[in-house]
Amino acid sequence: MAKHLKILGREAERRILDDETSIKQLIYSIIQSAGMAILGQPQLHRVELEVAKLGREPFEDEGGISCLACLSTSHVALHTWPLRNEFHLDIYSCRSFDPTPILHLVHDTLHTHDLQVTDVSKACEWPDESSSISEVNGVLKLASPDYAATTRIRFGSL
Q1: Which of 10, 92, 110, 155 qualifies as a cystine partner to 4, CB 3.0-4.6 A?
Q2: How far apart are CA 58 and CA 92, in angstroms?
C-alpha cells in the first residue's frame, strides 16, 4: 500500500533551515531510513530573499531552500522558510514505510520541537466500488471515509 505524508514543522533552527548541505543530507538520510532508492541527485534550489515582498499574502520569496528527490517509488520534497523557522516535507512512496525513524531524523537534524504530520495515504487508493455513490449535477460523488489523519507532535512534551 502507498504511503503519503505531509509534515509541517515550526520552531526549527533557522541556521539549519538555510544550510544547503544540511538540507541535502537530511533528504539522503530520509531516503536511506525508509529503504527507498533515489534516481539521480536531489535537485536543490535556493530562493533568494526579496525584502520588498515581505509581509504579503500569499507569502512568497521569503528566502529558503527547496529540495526534491525523485525516487524509484515516487518522491521526497522539502521546502524551508528560515525567516519563519518553518518547513514543509512531503514524502510519497508507492510502498509503505515506517515514518517513526523519519520523524526522529527531522527532529534531530532541524532541531524542531513542533511537527504536524498528516497521513494522506488513503487518498492514494481507489475507492471501494460498493461504497455509496450519488450523482449531483451530472457529477458522480463517492461517499467515503476521511482521507487524512493528522497528528501533532511536541518533542519537548513527550
Answers
A1: 92
A2: 25
